[in-house]
Every structure is written in structure tokens, then in C-alpha cells.
Design a protein that fits this description.
Length: 264
């Protein structure tokens, strides 16, 4: 059992749901990005999802796309990601999850990437554009490095395909709340809850966390009624963009995230 599943067991014992926050590495710059991760670690969130910037994302909306481009302009590379995480490793207590596309992993070298994830203290990985049909080597090497492999299910995923995804995922399933790209959205809760119940019927012990479109506390309060956790990304990235030049930015960010945490 990996660190992520252990964390979910602890949460369930305390009748709690997981709060996962997403931030792109290297935004607004590498130094401040490190401080943001350290700050988030002290806010009470359950997992920190760190995006490896990529120039051609398929699923990211304009908020995260802009942040990724700024990070790339500031030379936020895979090597620098691992350097930063290794530096922070001893001080962090919150499990880390890397979100990436397969191209940077392929260029870096799959086995090397996964080994360096382990050395940097990463607990799990999401590769947005890697279908399970092509993920055999990735899953095998991730297991060797004690990394949870987190796959995605969407509202359009067919039942048979969902069964296979559920059989291969460990840690949790990332359920994409609505079709389309990331960014603040109105989420049709009735439809969402129906899909979540269908997935739970397929595998009762799977953890399902919902992401995409979630940007306010009222949404979180509703979604955790039917899910094991919630992922907030674009709203936090926008908050960073709008406030990082303020002198007390890190304190403000901490208070903003703590306010979202209070929904749990």
C-alpha cells in the first residue's frame, strides 16, 4: 500500500474527505514556487499536486496554460523540478503528486523519471495523455519505485473501459467533473453524482476525487457528499497570479487555502 492509499485510510477513519490542491512548478518563478509548496504544506491540505509545465497541454484552460508558459519562460525544467523537490523533501509532510504529460517523461527517460520521483519524495503520478493500453511499462516501473499510478475517468468513459482503468489505478481515481478543459465552471451535480455512484458500483473500495471546474467553497461542500475528495487547481493558480506581488502574499495564500479547507 502506497502513501496515498494510507492517507485515504486515515481520512476515512476520521470520517473526512481529501482536499487536493494543484499548482504548476515554476510559477510565478522557481524560487517563489518552492515557497508556495512549503506554504501549502502548512495549510492542512491532504495532497499537493504539482504540475510539470508543458508547452502543448490538451486539457488545461487559459489560466493554467498561461501559468505553464510563464514557468517555461522562467526555465522550469524537469531537472529543476526534481532539484527543488529534493531540496524541500525533508521539510514537507504532505504527500506530493506529479501531474504531467507523457512527452516530458519520454524525453527525460521513463525509468529515470520514475526513479527521480521516488528520490524526490513523490507519492504518485498522473500522466494526462497516457492511455492504459500503452501504460504497461509505466505501471511496472512505477510499482518498482513505490509510486501510485493515478488514472482519469471522464463523463464520456464507457463502462468497460472504466472497469479496466479501475483495475489499474492505485491511490485514487481522478474523475473529471465535466467534459472540456480546466477552469472555473458550473458543475451539474445531479449528473456528476450519478456517474460517481456508477463507478463506485464497479469497485467499492476505490477512492474517487473530483477535479475540473471546482473554484468555490459551496461547490466543495456539495461534491464531498458523494466523493472521496476534491481537487482545486485553476482557482488557486489565479489567486497566485493576482496576488504574488503583494508583500504578504504567502500569508494571504495560506489564508485563502485555509478558507477552502474549512469546507471539509
Amino acid at each position: 500500500m502506497g502513501k496515498i492509499e494510507k492517507k485515504f485510510l486515515t481520512l476515512k477513519e476520521n470520517k473526512k474527505r481529501a482536499f487536493i490542491v494543484f499548482v504548476p512548478f515554476g510559477f510565478p518563478d522557481i524560487s517563489l514556487s518552492e515557497k508556495i509548496i512549503e506554504t501549502l504544506d502548512k495549510t492542512g491540505v491532504d495532497f499537493i499536486e504539482i504540475g510539470l509545465p508543458f508547452s502543448d497541454p490538451l486539457a488545461d484552460g487559459p489560466i493554467i496554460q498561461e501559468a505553464n508558459q510563464i514557468a517555461l519562460d522562467r526555465k522550469a525544467t524537469t531537472d529543476k523540478l526534481f532539484y527543488s523537490l529534493k531540496k524541500l523533501k525533508k521539510s514537507l509532510v504532505t504527500p506530493l503528486i506529479i501531474l504531467t504529460y507523457y512527452n516530458p517523461v519520454y524525453v527525460y527517460g521513463l525509468k529515470k523519471f520514475l526513479k527521480d520521483c521516488r528520490k524526490a519524495g513523490v507519492s504518485g503520478i498522473m500522466i494526462v495523455d497516457l492511455p492504459f493500453e500503452e501504460a504497461g511499462l509505466y505501471i511496472k516501473e512505477a510499482k518498482k519505485n513505490y509510486l501510485d499510478t493515478i488514472f482519469f475517468i471522464t463523463p464520456t468513459t464507457k463502462i468497460e473501459r472504466a472497469k479496466k482503468i479501475l483495475s489499474l489505478s492505485c491511490g485514487f481515481i481522478y474523475y473529471i467533473s465535466v467534459t472540456g478543459i480546466t477552469g472555473p465552471k458550473r458543475i451539474p451535480l445531479g449528473e456528476l453524482f450519478s456517474h460517481l455512484r456508477e463507478i463506485k458500483k464497479l469497485k467499492k473500495d476505490i477512492n474517487i476525487c473530483v477535479g475540473f471546474g471546482i473554484h468555490k467553497k459551496s461547490q466543495i461542500k456539495e461534491i464531498i457528499k458523494e466523493s472521496d475528495g476534491v481537487i482545486v487547481g485553476s482557482a488557486i493558480v489565479k489567486y497566485i497570479k493576482d496576488n504574488y506581488l503583494e508583500k504578504d502574499f504567502l500569508k494571504r495564500l495560506s489564508n485563502y487555502v485555509k478558507e477552502l479547507c474549512s469546507a471539509f
